[in-house]
Each structure stands twice: as C-alpha cells, then as structure tokens.
Known about the structure:
Helix content is 42%, strand content 14%. The protein is built from ten helices and eight strands.
Amino acid sequence: MTLEGKVAIVTGSGRGLGLAYAKELARQGAAVVVNDIDAAVAEAAAAEITDAGGRAIAVAAPVGPTETAERLVAAAVEEFGRLDILVTNAGVLRDTVLWKMSDDDFDTVIDVHLRGTFTCVREAASYMRANEIAGRIVCIGSPTGQRGNFGQTNYAAAKAGIVGMVRTWAMELKRAGITANAVIPVAATAMTATVPYFAAAVEADEKGEPMPAFFRHDLGFGTADDVSGLIAFLASDAAAGVTGQAIGIGGDRIQVWSHPEPALTAYRDGGWTADALAEEFAPQLAENLQGVGESFPPLPDELQRPAQSPA
Length: 311
C-alpha cells in the first residue's frame, strides 16, 4: 500500500491524534497540509514531518468557517498541485452537565466539530468532483457519539452528527468515486489522561513503555499511532470499496459499528393507542431497553492507581 503522489489535508493535526495521522500519511508517501489554530504548533508539526523526509506545509486557522475550508483546499492545490485526501480531526471540548451548559459551550463545540467537518468536506468534495478525483474523506467520530457520555451533550451531538453526515455523503459521492468513512478512535489523549481509570495506561505511554494487555486487548485502548494505520488504509486505493462505514480502532482491537437498526418490532391491527402501549407493548419494551454510555470492566488490582486529590 502506498500514498505516493497523493495530497492530504488533516485538520487539527498540530499535536495528538491529528499529528499521528499526518505523520503516517506522510510516511506512506502523501504530501500533507497540517492545520492547527496555533501557528507555532502547526509549523512545528510540519517541520517534524519534513525533517523526517516527508512533504508538509502548515496552515494556521480555526476550523469551522467556510473561509478556513477554502484556505486549506487552496493551500493543498497551490503547494502540491491537487487534493486527494481529507481527514477532519479538529475539535474542542467544553464539558459540563446539561443544566450548566451555556449557549457558548454548546455552540463552540458544534461549530468546530460539526460545522467544521461540513465546511471542509463540502470544499474538498467540490474540488474532487470538479477535477474527477476519486478522493477519500475520513471523518473522526468518538465513542461518545455512538453511545453518549455524561457531561458531553455538545460533543455527543457533534460526533453523532458527523457519522450521520458520513452515511449521507457516502451515497451522494458514490458516483464520483469518492469514499466517505468515519473512524471511532480510542486512544491515550489529553482528555483520557485526566481519567483515573486509564491512569496506568497513560503512565506507561508517557514512559514509552508498552501499555498493559488489559487496556490494549480487553478495552481496545492504545496510543495515537495505533489509530493512524486505519487512517492511511482508508485514504488509500486499497479501500476504494469501503464507504459509509463507522470503524472503531484502539490498541489491538478494530470494530465495524453497525448502523442503527430496530431492536424490537411489534404490530397491532388498528395501530397503537396509549392504553394498548401500556398493556401490550410495555412488557416487551422493558425486556428490550437499550443501554446508554459505556461500561468498563473492573480494573485488575495491579493496574489500580490512587485517586489524585484536587489541587
């Protein structure tokens, strides 16, 4: 598999998961437009790629506005002559419970994650269609968007929306040969570093040591580099027949998430009144209620870490 001759944009790629994606795409031969809101961070990331023998430029701009999407696509075409791959990774968190979440908390996350994905994909897909390029769109989702998570109304809405858009784009772009997929990563990040449950895994990662098998295998939790191979695969010609999918990856595990399907179907001649629902359907419903959020198994004793006291 090779990405030689391909050109990619990776939003939010100055550090963390995004940087891992950009570095892997470059390692596979693609020229990369690195994007971050912080100019110094974006330049440093691009320099790291070029110092390793790759090709990269930096574009410092906040993802969300149409103007940023236009700048990114223009930079790819002007510097490298074309655009084949878009990875939408840029994001921001404003976590708080529903009754404390402000309009700004909600709007900021939706603007960067959801609107930013939309504007960047619209611009990239328009360029690819106009130039008859069978491009690759890879959008980053989250387990929170699939299952929900306490204190993340805004983030859950955005990430669920991204997967919904990907399914739609897969249909709309099929005739042009452009694929659209979502990746659901589970990896050590700045966010997971603050969660006591993952302390032993983060500790090992920071020391450059292998993560315990419990995290890598049982939980499918690993490093940013564990995710980057899937990004490169979906960006390649080898994945030409893969589109409209939500694929989870982390540690030693990879999963294909199902599209929402009915878990229970029942029929009643004449339809369902409130009384009929209470009498006939409620017992079946009680046996088929779907779970929310993620449940983690108990940590083995050797991976337990004392809770940190607030500063």
